[in-house]
Amino acid sequence: MNARRNCTKVPIKVLVVDDSALVRQLMTQLLEEDPGIEVVGAAADPYIAREKIKQLNPDVLTLDVEMPRMDGLTFLRNLMRLRPMPVVMVSTLTERGAQVTLDALSLGAVDFIAKPKLDVARGLTEYAGLLIEKVKQAAKARVVAPAPERNGEVAAHAPAVAYRTTHRLLAIGASTGGTEAIREVLTQMPADAPATVIAQHIPGAFSAPFAERLNRHSRMTVLHVERDQELLPGHAYVAPGGRHLRVFRSGARWHCRLGDDDPVRRHRPSVDALFESVAEHVGGNASAALLTGMGDDGARGLLALRKAGAATLVQDEASSVVWGMPGAAVALGAAQETVPLAHVAQRLLAGTAHD
């Protein structure tokens, strides 16, 4: 585990690893526009990167997904085993790029930024602010070498929490580090858990593969929401990237609805948008958890849920990759409980155990 970076004026040292000379040059220029970042080197492949890590001792690595001589995942796996450090993946907006990036996050990468398949220079320039923000957050992130997955399926070593289906609803929101945090929570959910709605900050090309991955790890049926539909027990519903997910009541039943309205707190899907709809239409019949993530999206929504009588909790700082969103919720007084990630599923279900 790396120590969290102290808040000093010492620049964050970054090593850029990419097989494209153009991308290496462009990312170096973009990152060094911020006085708080120093690109100490660049590498065209993992073998060169390995030597430069030893020589330059960077704080953060940006790593291309598809690399020559050694693929990015193999390099990342070795890196996290031998020298765990914050890594931001640079992936392509393709189905394969999404799958490999999700694999990288499961191996311990902190975050990712997607580069377009065409006109990479223009696309990365448009993402400059986001790239800088993610590198800065990565420098402060908690990095832990992950335990190996077991064939990607629902694992017998992760027992489900006992639960009897009721008319309750669960809501989960996350950002940086959330793809793996949500996976861990759903792995512990029983097949008859209450309907669960999920907002994770993720690009549109990545959200369907993310939902598919969750479905492989969960006893619940996990769906990528593509239309308005009824919410059913035993099912989890993942907001699509680029669209808001909200809950509303229709008669005696709850439904979810997609929205293309403006981003909230700079995000679409927004956790605040989801949580506020749950507060309005579900109220005290809900339990909600705000997990790891940078920024403050979801904090106000969690407060609205608490005021509406819902059970509210946040992931604790020690188990969070970035304690921005949970910390903001704690500062607002929105969370009734602050718990380790390993206990989130149990506490979510406990908050809905009363009738």
Automatic annotation (TrEMBL):
Domain of life: Bacteria
Stretches assigned to the CheB-type methylesterase domain: 163-355
Subcellular location: Cytoplasm
Family indicated by similarity: Belongs to the CheB family.
EC number: 3.1.1.61, 3.5.1.44
Annotated positions of the 4-aspartylphosphate modification: D64
Catalytic activity: [protein]-L-glutamate 5-O-methyl ester + H2O = L-glutamyl-[protein] + methanol + H(+); L-glutaminyl-[protein] + H2O = L-glutamyl-[protein] + NH4(+)
Post-translation changes: Phosphorylated by CheA. Phosphorylation of the N-terminal regulatory domain activates the methylesterase activity.
InterPro entries: CheB-like (IPR008248), CheB_C (IPR035909), CheY-like_superfamily (IPR011006), Sig_transdc_resp-reg_Me-estase (IPR000673), Sig_transdc_resp-reg_receiver (IPR001789)
Record: active site: S175, H201, D297
The protein's name in its UniProt record: Protein-glutamate methylesterase/protein-glutamine glutaminase
UniProt key word Cytoplasm: yes
Residue stretches making up the Response regulatory domain: 13-130
EC category: hydrolase
Entry keyword set: Chemotaxis, Cytoplasm, Hydrolase, Phosphoprotein
Main location (coarse class): cytoplasm
Its job: Involved in chemotaxis. Part of a chemotaxis signal transduction system that modulates chemotaxis in response to various stimuli. Catalyzes the demethylation of specific methylglutamate residues introduced into the chemoreceptors (methyl-accepting chemotaxis proteins or MCP) by CheR. Also mediates the irreversible deamidation of specific glutamine residues to glutamic acid.
Matches recorded under SUPFAM superfamilies: CheY-like, Methylesterase CheB, C-terminal domain
HAMAP family, alphabetized: CheB_chemtxs (MF_00099)
Domain-related comment: Contains a C-terminal catalytic domain, and an N-terminal region which modulates catalytic activity.
Molecular-function GO terms, alphabetical: protein-glutamate methylesterase activity
